[in-house]
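[audit] Reproducing an earlier prediction to check determinism. Same input, same settings, fresh worker. If the tokens differ from the archived copy the diff job will pick it up downstream; this log only records the rerun itself.
[audit] input (82 residues):
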Amino acid sequence: MPLDASKIGQVVAEQMEALEGRFGDDCQIGDVCTIVEVLGPHGSQVAVRPGSDVRPHGLIGLLRMAETMALSGVRGEPAEGD
């Protein structure tokens, strides 16, 4: 059975809508990274894919910022940039 990409598409569409609502039309998208959990007979694995122009140090920065924001949400703290 092939992977169903509709969930990724839905999440990305929701993210774009949230970004447009928050930042308006005067901004542009910078670096992008996707992180996906894949479930199957093998169990659970994580796949990470940076955008084509993301350099390794930029990717590490994105991942660390995402971790900080996620942990703030778990703690119930307001996350800057959320």
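[audit] rerun output stored. Observation attached for the diff report: The first strand starts at residue 33 and ends at 40.
[audit] end
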